Input
Amino acid sequence: MIRADLLIVGISELATPQGTTPRAGADLGRLSVVEDAAVACCDDKIVWVGARRDVDQAVRTDDAQTLDAGGGTVLPGFVDAHTHLPFAGWREQEFDERLRGATYSEIAARGGGILSTVERTREASREELTRSVRERLARLARLGTTTVEAKSGYGLEPEAELKQLQALRDAAADGPLDLVPTFLGAHTVPREYRQDRTAYVRLLIDTMLPQVAEAGLAEYADAFVDAHAFSLDEARQVLEAARSHGLGVRLHADQLDDDGAAALAAELGAASADHLEFSSDEGIEALARAGTCGVLLPAATFFLMSDTPPPGRRLIDAGVPVVVATDFNPGSCPCDSMTAALWFACLTARLTVDEAITAATLNAACALGRGKVTGTIEPGKRADLVVHDVPNRYHLVYRFGTPAIKHVIAAGKLID
Ligand SMILES: [Zn+2]
Output
């Protein structure tokens, strides 16, 4: 008989994708749904899932703590596959300026935008950054995120980039969230290199990437391809160098224009291409052929008041495995709630609720190389689960506006 140390009952509905590989097309919205369900966990793993009436014959629960879900809905813990977590300082004044009609370029020309966050992040000590990351991780856990990707990219010089990645490592060391660090030195060209961008690309390739790889501080490298950031060719050089150091690669692609970055992500065998609002049909087809995940960031598109919606249906119709993430950062998406990301994924990118759930759990886990570890509620997977205070999964989006998280379990531990 299976032994359990945590038993969750009182579940009106348990809904989960299944498997360890990303889902695309019609499979994206295929969930396993059990009504009046139970889940048993032992240590940090799920050991049994099924109908409540069957649990007593299958699982020895004498020593187990019992958690009553109170008629709530249980889904896998959210996997947020795209955040810019380690930053100093918010930018609410810029937001107010945008509401008064200022454009992002005008704000950047006055010294605002990414470069203002770079200035404040450079000034912050490693301890200050670590403390704020720890607080943000605790908040994410309460919001139901149990695995999170986090990018550097507000240092843009060797020491400050390393400081951001060290803060991530230190803050996540005690768990319970699983943090996947990404080096985003190629976020934008820092002010001091604006007259000699080639020298900054050399600094990334010759100094920063080797240091990051040597210190084991990142699993992935990312680059922002954009008229105001890096060209296709510069991004290719940086990411090929990253691969030669054993890092996986991902790409900020086609957010504001069709730069051909989706096709570059496919060509490089990237784990994901993110944003994709302006990707061409050819770019999207290349992603589908390469099996590269397409990460939608619908809360950011919404917050930027863009007229171009995230290309949810285009990606799904082309057979790209779709991921939904927040893009949490102080400029273009101060929203860190994956439930909110689901609202926008459904209401602006036109995913169904079931598709959005797979995109925010299993597919997101696969995009971070965690498909065998988390993203579904199945025996053998890590016990990452969320009890939502709703009678079924549709209510998560149907009653948008208020996340209703009742309990979060990350790696078998109940988060207070
Ligand atoms: Zn981003």
About this structure: The pocket of zinc ion is lined by residues 82, 84, 252, 327 (CB under 6 Å). The chain has two domains: 2-77+376-415, 79-367.
